Amino acid sequence: MTSNSNPSFDELRWVIQIRRDLDEELEEESEVPVNIYNVPKTLMAAKPDCYVPQEVALGPYHHWGPELYEMERYKLAAAKRTQKHLQRVKFESLVDQLTKHEPRIRACYHRFLEFNGDTLAWMMAIDTSFLLEFLQVYAIKAGWLLTRVSSRMSHLVDYAGTKSAHNAILRDMVMLENQIPLFVLRKVLEFQFPTLDQADDMLCSMLAGFGEDLCPFGMMKDLPQIHVEEQAHLLDFLYHLIVPRSKEPSEIIEVENEDEPKEGKEESFGNSNYVQQLFQIIWNLLSTCTQGPIRLLKRLLLSDPVKVILKLPWTIKIAIPSVSELSKSGVRFLPTNGSISSIIFDAKMTTLYLPTVSLDVNTEVILRNLVAYEASNASGLLIIARYTELMNGIIDTKEDAHDEEVADLWNGMNKTIRLTKVPFLDKVIEDVNNYHTGIWQVKAGKFMKRYVFGSWQFLTFLATICILWLMALQAFCFVYSCPRMFNVTKDE
Question: Do residues 58 and 180 touch, judged by C-beta distance below 8 A?
Fold first, then answer.
């Protein structure tokens, strides 16, 4: 009899929870789509510190993390201050109200939550109190007269945004697995204000300041109107601030297994399919031979290193010249104050317009979690993923970015998830490539690269086969004495 791999798993509690969930009315839950996901494993493996909270756990996914439990006392302090601001009700009344929305809360999370209803409601109430106290910094900046944070929280909440602890918590707040449904924040604020409209105004003020502070792209002076009921959580709000909601569903077309390489598409080391086919042909010929050195050669071709080489993902990145190469061909780069949708290439002015990106200690975490959320919640095109691939394509070295850290950031965000065709970005890539390849110096360089230097993979493979064959022939001659077999004397 096998034991449960999770020693903390309570089977009886699980059965009780399942029975309760089945008895619950499904009308409310069916209207709430899942919007808080696990980070895809391919992304998590690349840089886990960007996806796992380092300071504070918000919500159920990382709540029991021992390295994060130190922050519980600050959460409780925030809950006590929330109690003081409630409109003549106890904090427990707020918890009871959240308990009524338990099915809706659970429906937001992709992972099954091994918490009973009371535990989940208390967790949401306490974590939300902490989150709102942190977000009130932005409301104070907007002119709301709120109580300043306590001395206990002063080293965490920084009105100037310069303290390291403040930025660490901001990074945790945008992580995909560390989200709290925004309607929970509305419910808690509703208890603190006389009307729902006032609570929504406060939340809008918090979101506006949060977005302006953390959005890596240049913000418009006049933010679009914020409809709090349309926002799933803080990361979702930040995502749709960058990628506006589309009223019409978009068709996802994955960029995978293209038979012919095209300009503006993923570049590869030759065509790995042809190399594999060549290996297969050689193997079919060798399979009919089982004598002496041939057996050794077959053993080498079946070795682990060769298998690893055949399984390597040869696709590297979008085929687009680097900033340095484009500059040499006369392309200028000008910034825009918009978002990703402002990227265009003006062929007449030979100018590539790119959005201004503010890079600080939070930028990489924000971009990575936006990509993770987009990949998990994709109901349309993977625009941010395609944008990061574009930036990875045009920035190869520190000379392209005029800063080594900036180059490392974009080069570190390599392709770890599937891509889609994003029409307006693909057109920019195509237009840039058409201009660049139309210059005669580039044409000459591409000719040399394709027909002279570009054949090194095949030549290397061919040389390897020749060396292996000569080694086999040498071994054969050592055993069977080739000179004697061919009647060749040393004098000859």
Answer: yes
